[in-house]
Write a structure and sequence with these properties.
Elements: H1 11-18, H2 24-40, H3 44-54, H4 62-73
Length: 78
């Protein structure tokens, strides 16, 4: 026996039904920040912060990560 239920509701109603938090205000803040980065451009300090957030433990900064990456892909004879 197979029983199927079709529930017609919006995403907000579904989140409320399952007790999930409403993250729309946080999403709006994130979108505003991303719009600012697109219109104002990403500066070196922003890029360094992003690299640190994406790769925790890289306290030496982006130069160390870049050198490690290039040394890993460089041919052995160089």
């Amino acid at each position: 026996m197979k029983i199927t239920f079709d529930i017609d509701c919006s995403p907000q109603e579904a989140r409320a039904l399952f007790g999930l938090p409403d993250l729309e205000p946080l999403h709006a803040l994130y979108l505003d920040k991303m719009k600012g980065l697109v219109t104002d451009g990403v500066g070196p300090a922003d890029f360094d912060r992003m690299a640190r957030a994406w790769m925790p433990g890289m306290s030496e900064g982006f130069d160390t990560w870049r050198n490690a990456l290039f040394s890993a892909v460089r041919p052995k004879g160089d």
